[in-house]
């Protein structure tokens, strides 16, 4: 089992404090959801975990099995088993999707232990079938001209191929039609297991109809203010966030 532990995390962007003491522990074999109103720091948390240079950690710790993640460069974080699906995945011209995925897999392996081309192609074909993706997506340049739905599906393809220990999925469900949403959920559910933990950030409860999270956390004003089981997401869907604000005495 592996554990990702975030303790008292404070993060600033351009000297403005956005995260004000986030605490969160995720084990492998668990799926956690973070919900919360817009602008409360959910994406900031994802970016800070992945080491985006614009996000300055001013206090607190992030550790995987006791290893200090904050001391690692971005590529070292990926090597340590972290995977981030961006809210707005970027385009990389001149790199095919297949090449990108293969390099990412090999970056996590020792020299001399790279995945063979045959094995890679076999796994890629199988996974693209599973995700109901067009085979020509593999040879297209990364994210170039991909529709919103194709980008998200592609993030799940990357996830299933790279097999990270912990995935941070930021609004992987936004802008998806119901069929694409089901495919994305199918991929995440397929990953669920002993070697995999997931933090799914979502603005809507919708995704959680297809992925049952072990824990649901509510983020407001830069902190995790409430945690519970799947029933918490259902209550948020039905009643919004006002009752939590009242309960905790949070002003808008
Ligand atoms: P959420 O994902 O919960 O909607 P964000 O983490 O995106 O919230 O944003 C939290 C706050 O940080 C917002 O007030 C937002 O304006 C600010 N913020 C986020 N990213 C940046 C940035 N790159 N530069 C300046 N401010 C930012
Ligand atoms: Mg955010
Ligand atoms: Mg966001």
Automatic annotation (TrEMBL):
The keyword Nucleotidyltransferase does not apply. Keywords: ATP-binding, Nucleotide-binding. Residues 4-246 form the ABC transporter domain. InterPro entries: AAA+_ATPase (IPR003593), ABC_transporter-like_ATP-bd (IPR003439), ABC_transporter-like_CS (IPR017871), FeS-cluster_ATPase_SufC (IPR010230), P-loop_NTPase (IPR027417). Pfam families: ABC_tran. It comes from the Bacteria. One of its GO terms (molecular function) is ATP binding. Belongs to the ABC transporter superfamily. Ycf16 family. This is Fe-S cluster assembly ATPase SufC.
């Amino acid at each position: 089992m592996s554990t990702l532990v975030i303790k008292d995390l404070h993060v600033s962007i351009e000297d403005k404090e956005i995260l004000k003491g986030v605490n969160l522990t995720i084990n492998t074999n668990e799926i956690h959801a973070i919900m919360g109103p817009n602008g409360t720091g959910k994406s900031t948390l994802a970016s800070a975990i992945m080491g985006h240079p614009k996000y300055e950690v001013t206090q607190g710790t992030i550790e995987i099995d006791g290893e200090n993640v904050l001391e690692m460069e971005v590529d070292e974080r990926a090597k340590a088993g972290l995977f981030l699906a961006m809210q707005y995945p970027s385009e990389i011209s001149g790199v095919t999707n297949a090449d990108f995925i293969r390099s990412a897999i090999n970056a996590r392996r020792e020299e001399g232990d790279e995945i063979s081309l045959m094995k890679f192609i076999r796994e890629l074909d199988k996974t693209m079938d599973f995700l109901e993706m067009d085979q020509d997506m593999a040879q297209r340049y990364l994210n170039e001209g991909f529709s919103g739905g194709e980008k998200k599906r592609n993030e799940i393809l990357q996830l299933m191929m790279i097999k990270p220990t912990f995935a941070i999925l930021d609004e992987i469900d936004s802008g998806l039609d119901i069929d694409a949403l089901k495919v994305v959920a199918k991929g995440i559910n397929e990953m669920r297991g002993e070697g995999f933990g997931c933090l799914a950030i979502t603005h809507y409860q919708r995704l959680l109809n297809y992925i049952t999270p072990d824990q649901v956390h509510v983020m407001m004003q830069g902190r995790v203010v409430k945690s519970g089981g799947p029933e918490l997401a259902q209550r948020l869907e039905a009643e919004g966030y006002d009752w939590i604000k009242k309960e905790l005495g949070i002003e808008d």
